[in-house]
Amino acid sequence: MKIIVTAKLGDEKLKTKLIGLQANQEIQKIYLIRPYPLNFAKVINVNPSAYIAKNRLLFEIWRLTQLLSLMSKKEIKIVIGIQFFLHGFVAVVVAKLFRKKAIVWLIGSDVMLHGQKKVLKWFFSRTLYMCDVIFVMGSKMRSYLSDIPQDKIYEMQSYIDPEIFSYELSGVKYWDVVFVGNLVGVKNVEVILKSVAINYRKGKSYRALIVGDGPLRVELEAMSSELGISNLVTFLGARGDVRDIIHHSRLIALSSKSEGLPAILLESAFCGTPSISSDVGEISEVFSDYKCCKIVTAITPEAFAKTIDEVLSNSELLFFMEKQSLLFRNDYLRKWGREEQANNWSYALSMALVNS
Fold first, then answer.
1. What is the set of domains in the chain, with CATH numbers?
2. Contacts 24+ apart (CB under 8 A), 306-312
3. Where is the chain membrane-spanning (predicted)?
4. What is the pTM of this model?
């Protein structure tokens, strides 16, 4: 079977989505339409020039022409879009134009943020209605899709490689509070900075590390200076050594306004590093039976400052959360390990092909 996948995720994140397709014996070729190439078995990269890749409008025009060309020349059975805006939308439209099957893997912001905007809601729902299979990360995301036939919707989670994100409790902890993600508004990073400042004024000098890049980086760096904590906060930029950073961190913190199920929380649990997070998306549900991720119900600097101090000042609680992460890791691998990823994708592909 030949399929098309279109996406824009970073290399490592995209691999966590494709691992089940790679392991599927029925798939011979995966044509990957993406700004940049991916070195991955079965993948045939279809990439634009560097100039087109940097221009959103030109990229979208280029992507549409490539999709139409592949659908015309190759025997494509299924088109898959990872993330709806605009990858999933284009995938569905082109697939249906050629009377082929379409699968969309939704992320949290697709469903809980952009898909709820008045201007986009009808367009979002109508496109999903045409899908043959829709992946969500849990029951909360599913609840937003009540107008979509429920037999099209399946839970799917990313693969976390246990060899990369190894369980290690030993080693020097250089940072107390660590954020990993894009520096954009929805991530609410200012809450973490302000919580560090609150604790600092109380005599608690927690060292914070901000890993990632984005349009708000300059503004956030200025904020750390204004709050008087520039000596405690390090902005590291985008990094490829997230595993090592997690291993040298005492606590991972996420204060997002909207999420699905962030990979950083899964990765930190796999590494044995406790985390705290705002109660958004599927986070509280996924971690409800495990105490390795502490949920902060109010997304305020005061609430985060209190939770950070409660965890970091209590060595017994930290140790308990570290041990709980091992339980989470083992259970997650039983449900979403490499073999299970292949089985889940195989079932989804078969459901898409029989869907009328």
1. 2-159+336-354 (3.40.50.2000), 175-327 (3.40.50.2000)
2. 307/276, 308/176, 308/177, 308/195, 308/196, 308/199, 308/206, 308/251, 308/253, 308/276, 309/199, 309/202, 309/204, 309/206, 311/251, 311/274, 311/276, 312/176, 312/177, 312/204, 312/206, 312/250, 312/251
3. 78-98
4. 0.90
